[in-house]
Structure formats: structure tokens, C-alpha cells
Design a protein that fits this description.
- This protein is mainly alpha-helical.
- The chain is built from four helices and no strands.
- It has a domain of about 60 residues.
- Helix 3 packs antiparallel against helix 4.
- The longest helix is centred in the N-terminal third of the chain and has 31 residues.
């Protein structure tokens, strides 16, 4: 198997290589998601999707203009939370 071959060349245990590789992959995905969340947060001047929802309810943003961003924000926060949970289990 590829992991065993590479681990042998790197003089490390396959399990260590696999775990460290997974950790780096998950950390990278979290950074990408957090970057997109930051973009959305700056766009609307909020910290999270809950604040965006409140701004929409207060009429500061029309539902039509923020509709797609709202669902993207919510989805990204959920995905980030899942990835953080996965990272903690590694």
C-alpha cells in the first residue's frame, strides 16, 4: 500500500503518517472555510450567521440580497464545526 511505502521511505510509522496527513488536510480545509466566513462576515459587518439573521429581521439587509449568502454562511459554519470535531478526534 502507498502509505506503508512512503512511511518506510520517511522512516516513520504508517499510522503516524496517516494521522498527521489527515490532520494537515483537515486544518487546511478549516483555514479555507474560515477565510470564506471572514469574507462574508466583513461583507455584512457581522460575526456569525446568527447576527446576519438578526440584521435581516431588523431590515438592515433585504432578504433577497442576503438570501444566498445567509445559507452559504450557515453551511460553512456547520462544515467548520464538523471539521473542528474531526480534528479534535485525531
Amino acid at each position: 500500500m502507498l502509505i506503508e511505502q512512503i512511511a518506510q521511505k520517511l522512516e516513520t510509522e504508517p499510522q503516524t503518517l496517516e494521522r498527521d496527513s489527515l490532520r494537515l488536510y483537515v486544518e487546511r480545509k478549516i483555514r479555507v472555510i474560515e477565510s470564506e466566513l471572514l469574507r462574508l462576515a466583513h461583507k455584512y459587518g457581522v460575526q456569525n450567521v446568527t447576527e446576519l439573521d438578526e440584521m435581516i429581521r431588523q431590515g438592515k439587509y433585504h432578504e433577497d440580497e442576503a438570501f444566498e449568502d445567509y445559507f452559504e454562511f450557515d453551511s460553512l459554519e456547520s462544515e467548520r464545526d464538523t471539521l473542528v470535531s474531526v480534528l479534535e478526534s485525531l
